[in-house]
Design goal:
mainly beta, binds zinc ion, two-stranded antiparallel sheet, 3-stranded antiparallel β-sheet, 59 residues, 5 strands
């Protein structure tokens, strides 16, 4: 099941959505901002198939 995360870039402040499969459970990954292309680490907490927390840290 895919959920759309709303990611706020710590570098440029732009918000973009990211498809995330909540059935995978909690995850942490590094992505590049769709707007400024700078990297960030996204940590997603999942409980009972729902996103309960989202942390975004600039690299
Ligand atoms: Zn950005």
């Amino acid at each position: 099941m895919n959920d759309a995360l709303s990611i706020s870039c710590p570098h440029c402040g732009e918000i973009f959505s990211l498809a995330f499969d909540v059935s995978e459970g909690s995850a942490e990954f590094t992505i590049d901002c769709e707007v400024c292309c700078r990297p960030m680490t996204v940590a997603v907490q999942v409980a009972d198939g729902e996103v309960t927390g989202l942390d975004i840290v600039e690299e």
